[in-house]
Amino acid sequence: MMEIKKISLADKNYPALLKKIKKPPQILYFQGELKNEKCLAIVGMRRCSDYGKQIAWEIASELADAGLTIVSGLAPGIDTIVHQAVVERKKRTIAVLGTGLDEKSLYPRSNLKLARQILENNGCLISEYPIGTPGSRFTFPQRNRIIAGLSLGVLVIEAQEKSGSLITAQYAFQNKRKVWAIPGSIFSSNSKGCHALIKAGARLVENAADILADLKLNLTPKTAAIALGENEEENLILNVLKNEALYIEKIIEKTQLPAAQVASTLAILEVKNKVKNLGNNLYAINHR
């Protein structure tokens, strides 16, 4: 891992947007490079649904392609998917930690490899906590103000009524940053927090284009090409995935292809960057 550096609030290179919040960190520890740049935060549930995973991957990818630096918290769930989507595109993402930046303190341990990949792709790890500081019930909510403070706005993808993501959104509201939320089923507890945010004034959005339009930035998401296969089996699979992500068992059921053929075709489509395994054999079209 790279050298851990620090910067004080008085330094001219301290992030300008973060400096404007109430109670900005007096000291920031960081790995990688700090820049004054256009950042946007994406946060959400740790135990996210398949719906949340697909949305997080697609919107993070499109916003990164449009030129925004994506900020999140490296937590399991939505945060992890967001960072992974940006890293796969070799774009810049910032992870704000609720621990020290040394590998022994970094949490979650399962994302140590991802943290290294973020740095390898010109990203940055940030914390207000010195080396050796473990995470606690206090440090993680506190770091959420940094996630919001670095960013032009915060997008929440899936949140229950008492989700930590809502803390990040509240910091954004308090500091007059934009807040967006993805709607979901009224029957899903994963949507309750987002719906509450929308009622409180967050903008309902469905895609990256909605966010870019609201920011009035001269940036446009890349138009996703229609995924076409090179044979009948590939086209059958791509067709059943065009509306939603599906587990491999459901793909087998919908295409009526033999299980071995589906598995081998999905592997080929992954190599061709036409589909993406979002984890646990949940596949979605890779809009690149």
- SSE class: alpha/beta
**Domain unit count:** 2
Beta-strand residue fraction: 15-25%
Average pLDDT, all residues: 91
Question: Could you describe the largest sheet, including whether it forms a barrel?
Answer: 9 strands, mixed
* Number of DSSP strand runs: 12
Q: Helicity level, as a percent range?
A: 25-40%
Strand order of the largest sheet: 1-2-6-5-4-3-7-8-9
- The CATH architecture of the largest domain would be 3-Layer(aba) Sandwich
The CATH topology of the largest domain comes to Rossmann fold
Main features:
nine-stranded mixed sheet, 288 residues, alpha/beta, 12 strands, 2 domains, three-stranded antiparallel sheet, Rossmann fold, 11 helices, Arc Repressor Mutant, subunit A
What does the model show?
The two termini are 29 Å apart. It contains 11 helices and 12 strands. Strand 8, helix 7 and strand 9 form a beta-alpha-beta unit. It is an alpha/beta fold and 288 residues long. The protein is globular. The mean pLDDT is 91. The chain folds into 2 domains: 211 residues, Rossmann fold (3-Layer(aba) Sandwich); 54 residues, Orthogonal Bundle (Arc Repressor Mutant, subunit A), CATH 1.10.10. The strands form 2 sheets. It has a 9-stranded mixed sheet, sandwiched between helices.
